[in-house]
């Protein structure tokens, strides 16, 4: 009987030791993720609200709002987007990924989007990986900045910032073409 209890004690201590070493492994998770590094990403984002092939559509807006070509961006409307990302400003240039998510138009005192998107890449070194943006986006300012709050794949645990520059903007025409220059801190996986 005593022997069995001692045996249980050994098992218990072994479990504690194993779980303890498991915890240590996780504390040193940085080593597991590899060295931190910085990557700069450069691409163009095409957001089209109008025409035969809009990439962004309104899904919710206040009662009484009429969405029409002359009122494509009413305040408090929610838009769902699947926007192509390309390597050049021309919409026909090579697609390198997609921005999928949604934004809310907010116009209390100035036009601002609340922007929530997964920016996923489909070519090059980061094919299959994505960064996550969640930020305020004052779209009428030609230059602005958004926060990178996370990522997937090679961008796991990413953080950083995206500098945006409006290349062209015509709500009733081709929509917006925005140049993105993103600095991402992530790990060598
Ligand atoms: C990106 O990855 C997918 C899935 O692995 C693959 O099918 C595709 O060919 C890749 N694209 C490029 C351009 O490398
Ligand atoms: C915006 O696009 C529309 C439709 O293509 C066009 O008629 C209009 O002239 C454009 N506006 C500007 C400022 O380029």
TrEMBL record:
Q: Which InterPro entries match?
A: Allene_oxi_cyc_Dirigent (IPR044859), Dirigent (IPR004265)
Q: Which cellular compartments is it found in?
A: Secreted, Extracellular space, Apoplast
Please indicate which superkingdom the organism of origin belongs to.
Answer: Eukaryota
User: Which range is the signal sequence, renumbered to this chain?
Assistant: 1-23
Could you tell me which Pfam families the record lists for this protein?
Answer: Dirigent (PF03018)
Provide a GO biological process annotation: phenylpropanoid biosynthetic process
Q: Does the keyword Lipid metabolism apply?
A: no
Q: Which UniProt keywords apply?
A: Apoplast, Secreted, Signal
What GO cellular component entries does it have?
A: apoplast
Q: Which Gene3D superfamilies match?
A: Allene oxide cyclase-like (2.40.480.10)
> Which family does the record assign?
Belongs to the plant dirigent protein family.
PANTHER family, alphabetically? NUCLEOPORIN-RELATED
Q: What does this protein do?
A: Dirigent proteins impart stereoselectivity on the phenoxy radical-coupling reaction, yielding optically active lignans from two molecules of coniferyl alcohol in the biosynthesis of lignans, flavonolignans, and alkaloids and thus plays a central role in plant secondary metabolism.
What quaternary structure, including any partners, is listed in this protein's UniProt entry? Homodimer.
Output this protein's name. Dirigent protein
Q: State the organism named in the record.
A: Dioscorea cayennensis subsp. rotundata (White Guinea yam)
């Amino acid at each position: 009987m005593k022997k069995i209890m001692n045996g249980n004690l050994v098992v218990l201590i072994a479990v504690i030791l194993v779980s303890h070493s498991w915890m240590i492994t996780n504390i040193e998770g940085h080593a597991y993720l590899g060295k931190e590094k910085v990557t700069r990403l450069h691409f163009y984002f095409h957001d089209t609200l109008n025409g035969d092939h809009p990439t962004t559509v309104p899904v919710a807006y206040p009662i009484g709002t009429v969405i029409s070509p002359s009122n494509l961006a009413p305040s408090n409307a929610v838009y769902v987007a699947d926007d192509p990302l390309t390597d050049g400003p021309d919409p026909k240039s090579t697609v390198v990924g997609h921005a999928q998510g949604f934004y809310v138009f907010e116009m209390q005192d100035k036009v601002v989007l609340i922007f929530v998107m997964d920016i996923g890449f489909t070519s090059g070194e980061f094919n299959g990986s994505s960064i996550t943006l969640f930020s305020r986006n004052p779209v009428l300012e030609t230059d602005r900045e958004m926060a990178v709050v996370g990522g997937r794949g090679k961008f796991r645990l990413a953080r950083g910032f995206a500098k945006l520059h409006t290349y062209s903007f015509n709500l009733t025409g081709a929509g917006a073409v925005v140049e993105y220059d993103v600095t991402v801190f992530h790990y060598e996986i």
